[in-house]
Design goal:
The chain has 346 residues and is an alpha/beta fold. Helices cover 40% and strands 21% of the residues. A hairpin with a 2-residue loop joins strand 14 and strand 15 (325-330). It is elongated and about 70 Å long. The structure holds iron/sulfur cluster. Iron/sulfur cluster is lined by residues 261-264, 266-267, 294-296, 298-300.
Amino acid sequence: MFSSKVVKVGNVALGGSNPIAVQTMYDSQIAECDVDQVLHRMRLLKAMGCDIIRFSYVSSADRDNFRRICSAGIMPVVADIHFDYRMALEAIECGCDKVRINPGNIGARWKTEEVVRAAMDRGLAIRIGLNSGSLPRGHEGCDKASVMVDSALEYVDWFTSWGFSNTVVSLKSSDIDTTIEANSRFKKQCDIPVHLGVTEAGGVVSSCIRSTYAFSRLFDLGIGDTMRVSITGSIEDEVHAAVEILRAMGYRKGGVRIVSCPRCGRHSFDSQGFLSRVENRLLALDKDITVAIMGCQVNGPGEAKNADVAITGIGNKVFLYLHGQLYGDVDVQNAEAELFDLIGKL
Ligand code: SF4
């Protein structure tokens, strides 16, 4: 089993015996966004189980909004930097908690050193982020896992020579075997915490399956201190997927457990549409409960018995259950409000 030394990212500690931290990456340009909306969404993501959030910092136009996002203190904020080291210096000056860079695309070594020294002055973390899709020139056709590991170890040596130790590394690939191989080989040589991800993993279904497979293999080896499930979809889905993976593997406990039926020709309540409307709100509740959302009388009352709160459609009505006992019936249009009212009583 591998272990990692501890690295602090704001108030979140990675490595050691700390829990595996969940990350996502904001999906809009900082300069273009409504900061109040971003902060509202970050609070929801945090309530859903997100620990760290990353933003692409692409130009000086991002500065004012990014400063406000960092100073809100909702969760540690990471600046994602490519090509221009001066954007990293700006993001650090804005108050971010961590910078993610690939020294291979920053240019001259002294530029990376400037970033590292600025981060060191403020006690920040840096993630050396390597991706098999952007290997250093001249390595096309080589074994991707080896090139990523060799590059990561070389950059770690640079950082160490500058006296910097608050380093995290990621070795990502869209190929599962390359991801597993690269992370396993890296951890054999280094105790730096790793950020796991199967990158460009597709939509919800393919990403969840591929990420779960890769992460479970790596977690079993003791590899993985923080993770992102990269989904071509919503960032709320990314956080939901990451938390569900951790819970399924026993690394996280508690929270809202949703039981819902897949729907079939018998349904008299659109459990699918209802779930899509209420799911993120349910997952953000600070409660340790099971909620069942069922489509008809076949399995609805039975699942309700095993849930703290349940809702099911029977005929033209929607029935609510509290601790397995029928609580009442309501019109479909009031179902959402009544469900959350009932949960509020717990
Ligand atoms: S609960 Fe009813 S609607 Fe849902 S899958 Fe089972 S039989 Fe079909």
